[in-house]
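Q: My collaborator sent me two sequences in one message, no labels, and asked for predicted structures for both. Can we handle them in order? The first one she listed is below.
A: Yes, handling them in the order given. First sequence, followed by its structure tokens:
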Amino acid sequence: MKDADARALLRDLFDAALAAARPATCLAPYIDALKPPKGRTVVIGAGKASAAMARALEDRWNHPLEGLVVTRYGYGETCKRIEIVEAAHPVPDEKGRAAAGRMLDMVKGLAADDLVLCLISGGASSLLALPAPGLTLADKQEVNRALLKSGAHIGEMNTVRKHLSAIKGGRLAMAAYPAHVLSWLISDVPNDDPGVIGSGPTVFDSTTFADALAVLDKFKIVPPAAVLAHLKAGAAGKIEETPKPGDPRLAHVETVMVATPKRSLEAAASLAQARGLEVLMLGDNLEGEARDLGAAHARQALAIAARNGKPTVVLSGGETTVTVRGNGRGGRNVEYLMAEAIAANGSPAVWGLSADTDGVDGAEDIAGAIFTPDTLARAKAKGHDPKAMLDNNDGHGFFQMLGDSLVTGPTRTNVNDFRATLIAPTGIAP
């Protein structure tokens, strides 16, 4: 297969996955089926897709509504009835804190005839940065930075975040009681757990203060004194826990997944099959160290190539982790892809793409990258050691140096990581 054809095919598969999760597309049937309440409709939301979700709602639903959503800088949309605020991600800032506070105030005092429509997508946890009483935004920022570098998976990170928050872990829904709370979620987490998506502001929380302390201990994170005191007080029963299953204050809560990683992978698989490729689906919930997964997928690809069969694409999703030990910029998709390229060792039959569907791999405005059979040779020709750059967690520097970064700009959706490994045995056309 020609290199240009392989690159174009991988990008087409990624674009198909994105298209399946665009808010205007995935929300349409739910908006059309939504019946207006007897009372007010208050729209709130957070995440990288939340502004696009709000825009889709305004464009298709002509009934009275009001509201506020917060999204990442650069991910805003123009809305007439719903206020859009842009704030920082992945480390929260004052704009996110202020918006979260206003959102909480908006849902207080509503009646049973009112509807709170909550639009949540990946990134909401950082964007809804309202510290619990006694904590500051600086406290949350420090803990967040430490978690992002620790290698903790998203469930562990959000366990801590929920117990430092005045709005996450079901507290937003508690404040809205007795109004009907309908949450439309675009999932960016393995297994589509609504309690993990955006740290679950409108659903019950199965984790505890003690669990949050255990996460910090596991990753040897020493938090600010106020954070440690807060978590210890909660574990001792001196601070009210997040609402648990069966809490009557969540009796009027309804939660719907409007887009998931699995649906996006299925869209990519359908396109691949239409192009004549075999598809091997590894699942939408893969976790673990990015570099370990990348090396494992390369070994699998080499085994498939050795059989010299039909061109095949191996698809997977999920959210890996990166334990940052070097001075590089991290990024789980580029870390995965570097490790895959190194393990593939220049095989002429293997290409790969790995990217975050939100367009941001780590803290970079780069979605991910593509590797090709000559990736290692080109790097070495430029005087760079791929293994050394991987050990330095410098995947973004590596692929930028080669011109192989994948830059999408704001996608305004987020269904987690997308990975595609293309195996085209030598001499076999697609």
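Q: And the one she listed second?
A: Here it is, processed independently of the first:
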Amino acid sequence: MAKKTKKRANGEGSIYQRSNGTWVAQITIGRDSEGRPKRTSFSGKTRKEVQEKVNKALSELQTGTFIEPTKTTLAQWLDTWMEEYKKPSLRPTTYEGYNFIIKTHITPATIGNIQLRHIQPSDLQRFYNAKLESGRADGKGGLSPRMIRYIHAILHGALKQAVREGLVIRNVTEAVTLPRHQRKEFTPLTQEQVIKFLNSIKNDKFYPAILLDLGSGLRLGELLALRWQDVDLKNAVIRVRQSLASVKGQWLFQEPKSEKSRRSIPIPKDIITELKAHKARQNQEKLLAGTAYQDHDLVFAMPDGNPLKVRSFQEHFEKLLSNAGMPRVRFHDLRHTYATLLLEAGEHPKVVQELLGHSQITMTLDTYSHVLPELKQAAAAKLGNILQKRKSPSQVGGK
């Protein structure tokens, strides 16, 4: 039976010595949801050591900085945070992306096994530095600064919630230094290349889809999820209301990325003409397929009506580029081509922002900064033309 020598610790709880010689203290740290006292324990080799722990805890309770001792590790907390806080609010594709990063890069690392309350900024900094140097899952080098920032964003969000719940005092992600942001390079096609490419693929089955993308700047998921009910052929406008995504090998329709992504885009008249011809051909496919046709009202679909497979579509696009002698670009670069051509034609960046569905104009300006020097030069030329109309000093003073 344990030998107990009880003494009050500043009027809170008790301190006693166990039969094995260790000292233990208990204090009340609050009340649970049913109003019952919540207590926590401290132990040590000497009574003085335990008394110091108790005094520190009581002081933190008074200042509101006390953190209830818990052995929850970062990996365990990330599981809880994802399941209880993120799963209900994230789009399925975003949720899967978060999960992939956590399971691939964070929880297998040493930092995943550290208890939340013990994580220091230096632990995170070493983790980021190691990932930057040799963090790829395949062992072939380090992660990009962009991926390090993705990881950081996830950890920042998880620890922010941990602070709210009183599991940690501060969010240590705010005290680290991130690698310099590197702008992702992209290659828009020139006007000449666009014309050459379109002429080369005019007889291809995906010509209407590629033509529409160059005339609307749709993301690939938005293009493949476009429905005829969202196409106003009379007024030459399409409306972005959903996006196609693949989750665990299964396709699904989901809400656009943001409220700004839900938008209306005017379309050139000749593209509308091509869409009408495409719709007529699609109606013939429906008749041939009969009851086997799965009608999702999609503008671009498989012969049986089901959504196009993203990877197959991209591979076909790459083949078309190669056959046309075009530079190797991603399908997403057609979106960049659309924006670049508009800006080069003198369209206001705010209008381009709205058409692309960017949340802020700063994103548009930052992404397409390569076009800005030419716009500045054009603006200077316009101003020069205005100023040239002024009278010279001799004209002003002469008779």
